[in-house]
Structures are given as structure tokens and as C-alpha cells.
Amino acid sequence: ILAGHGADHDGLLVLWEKMMESLTKKVKNTLSVPLVSYGFLRPDTLSTAVRFASNKAKYVFIQPVFLSEGYFTEIVIPKKLEGITYYYNGGTYLPHPNISIWLQNSIVLAAGFADRS
């Protein structure tokens, strides 16, 4: 399960959903695993996604889709998943060597979103 921040604003949430759908397809194809899904902190869909996966799979791994470790990866995600069995190391994008490419793409997407307002 990919764990993302998500967004309260509908337009930004659509961008989050598109990104997560793309990532889940890439992960599924790359790792050849039968079930890859995602959940958000906003709106709160993470625990539902993990519970669903727990009913379908023997092992459930959570991968945060966050830039860096911190409050959300260390406190919020584990708190939301209390009482559910899962595997999680809290690893984030940094210090990945391709982070600058990801940041540039994110800025271009955000600028395009801002132009539509």
C-alpha cells in the first residue's frame, strides 16, 4: 500500500489520485505482485485500504510517498494503522538521487494547476 498525504481540495486530490494510480501500476508491473493499492491521510482512506489488503493478502507492506521522514511518517501513519498487522519502515524519497527530477515535475504540475484557477 502506498501511503500518501492527499489533499482536502478536490482539484489537488485529483492530481494525487492520478499520481498514485500511476505509481501503483508501476510498482505492480515492476515487482510482479498481485495487489498494489494506495491510501491517503487526507481524506482518511489509508486504514481502509490497509484493512482491505489485509483481507486479501498474507503480508501487507506500507510505503510512504513522502519527501522526507518526519511527523507524518513517524507518528501519523503508525497511529492510523494501530490494531492492523502490516510491515513498515517509514522510508521516504530523500536522499534518493532522482529527487531533483521529481521536484521539477511536481513544480510543473503545480504551476499548471494554479493556471486553471
Key words describing this protein structure:
single chain; 117 residues; alpha/beta; four-stranded parallel sheet; 51% helix
Question: Layout of SSEs?
Answer:
Blueprint: E1 2-6, H1 10-31, E2 38-42, H2 46-56, E3 61-64, H3 71-80, E4 87-88, H4 99-115
Parallel strand pairs: 1-2, 1-3, 3-4
Give a quick summary of the entry.
With 117 residues, the protein is an alpha/beta fold. It has four helices and four strands; from the N terminus they run βαβαβαβα.
Fold and architecture overview:
The chain is an alpha/beta fold. The protein contains four helices and four strands, in the order βαβαβαβα. A four-stranded parallel β-sheet has the order 2-1-3-4, with helices on both faces. It is globular, with a radius of gyration of 15 Å.
Assign an overall shape: globular
The strand order across the widest sheet is 2-1-3-4
Radius of gyration: 15 Å
Helix content: 40-55%
